[in-house]
Design brief:
Blueprint: H1 8-32, E1 45-48, E2 61-67, E3 70-77, E4 83-91, E5 99-100, E6 104-106, E7 110-117, E8 122-131
Antiparallel strand pairs: 1-2, 2-3, 3-7, 4-5, 4-6, 4-8
Length: 136
């Protein structure tokens, strides 16, 4: 009588090997990526803008995150005045359309998330701020 064959060890060994190879492929892809430029926000970058001459009570704190062709801006306003933010995305390919988001009001102690995208690579992304109208 033969001993039963268990395939679980072989399966887990093959899964670990494939996971390791996938990790090497991802690491090689990350190493091959171009270095970020000074004006591009490739990755997470914090930007705080303060209004000129109006004190420190304006300007949401925003950070942008670029993941492939999608850009997400996370803005949080710790100040007592409403800030109006817009996300601007510049695409790398000449045929890819650059985009500007609609203005989003970030109220006092409020949070907003704005997204934009390109068809292919993102060259740069930035946030612009302006104080919202008093009636808003």
């Amino acid at each position: 009588m033969r001993a039963p064959h268990f395939r679980a060890p072989a399966f887990f060994s093959a899964a670990a090997l494939l996971a390791g190879l996938a990790g090497l492929a991802v690491a090689a892809e990350v190493r091959a990526a171009p270095a970020p430029t000074a004006d591009a926000t490739a990755g997470a970058v914090s930007v705080t803008v303060r209004g000129a001459g109006s004190g420190d009570d304006v300007g949401a704190s925003c950070r942008t995150l670029v993941q492939g062709s999608v850009v997400t801006a996370h803005c949080q306003n710790p100040y007592p005045r409403t800030d109006r933010v817009r996300l601007h995305v510049e695409c790398d390919r000449w045929w890819d359309l650059d985009t500007d988001s609609a203005p989003v009001d970030v109220g006092p102690a409020d949070y907003a998330q704005v997204t934009g995208r390109c068809w292919k690579e993102v060259r740069s992304a930035w946030i612009t701020h302006e104080p919202a109208a008093q009636g808003s």
